[in-house]
Design goal:
By secondary structure, the chain is of the alpha/beta class. It has one domain: P-loop containing nucleotide triphosphate hydrolases (Rossmann fold). Helix content is 54%, strand content 14%. The protein contains 9 helices and 5 strands, in the order βαβαααβαβαααβα. The chain has helices spanning 16-27, 34-42, 46-53, 55-67, 86-95, 105-111, 115-118, 128-142, 154-170, and strands at 5-9, 30-33, 74-77, 96-102, 145-148. Strands 2-3-1-4-5 form a 5-stranded parallel beta sheet, sandwiched between helices. The radius of gyration is 16 Å and the shape is globular. Bound molecules: adenosine-5'-diphosphate, shikimate-3-phosphate (S3P) and magnesium ion (MG). Magnesium ion binds at residues 16-17, 35, 77. Its EC number is 2.7.1.71.
């Protein structure tokens, strides 16, 4: 149990949670979704935290939760907004391979139909498209690997991501499937 984690980063709607659990199953790893840990710790839904406490407080809670994670051999689906926390990203980078799920803005917009209830960390007056342009350079700068996701099914992506990761994972555990 000394292997690195695989951490998905990317915009909300890029597929981090969906692909995370399936990749973990495919590779025989554990799975963790930081959004679920936040909700359990707070006893509230993400949207309620944002509505009640505001975006800045939500980001602090998220950063604190991520910095407390101590796991190995685990696929971790982060929330899209974790990228704003340099200490949280630094902590993840220490023992994980960061995989950026890259998806074009039109595809993100199409997937996010429930903006008001999904819990997106939007500042006052900020639109989803502004968030996209603000965050892309941050995801790019912190990714160990980038996976272009447009036009690919979940199954195709699991296959492609495992292939990309294989050399990195095999170098630390030759028995991994
Ligand atoms: N490769 C894909 N093709 C089509 N839809 C997808 C794909 N990956 C994820 N989705 C869908 O996109 C939506 C957002 O996925 P989700 O895993 O919640 O993203 P994230 O965790 O990055 O916010 C879900 O409805 C999911 O079913
Ligand atoms: O990008 C964001 O602002 C957020 C994305 C959400 O997770 P997903 O990226 O899994 O949708 C969740 O962490 C939170 O409500 C804020
Ligand atoms: Mg998610």
């Amino acid at each position: 149990m000394n292997g690195k984690n695989i951490v998905f980063i990317g915009m909300p709607g890029s597929g981090k949670s969906t692909l995370g659990v399936l990749l973990a199953k495919h590779l025989g790893m554990a799975f963790l979704d930081t959004d679920l840990i936040i909700q359990q710790r707070e006893g509230r839904l993400l949207q309620s935290i944002i509505d009640q406490d505001g975006v800045v407080e939500f980001l602090q809670i998220e950063a604190a939760v991520v910095q407390q994670i101590r796991v190995a051999d685990t696929v971790i689906a982060t929330g899209g907004s974790v990228i704003y926390s340099a200490p949280a990203i630094e902590q993840l980078r220490r023992d994980s391979i960061l995989v950026y799920l890259q998806l074009s803005y039109p595809a993100i917009e199409q997937r996010i139909q429930n903006m008001a209830s999904r819990g997106i960390a939007l500042a006052e007056g900020q639109q989803l498209v502004d968030l996209y342009h603000e965050r892309i350079p941050l995801y790019e700068a912190n990714a160990d690997l980038t996976m272009p996701c447009d036009g690919l099914s979940v199954d195709e992506l699991i296959f492609k991501i495992s292939d990309l990761l294989k050399p990195l994972l095999a170098s630390q555990d030759p028995t991994r499937p």
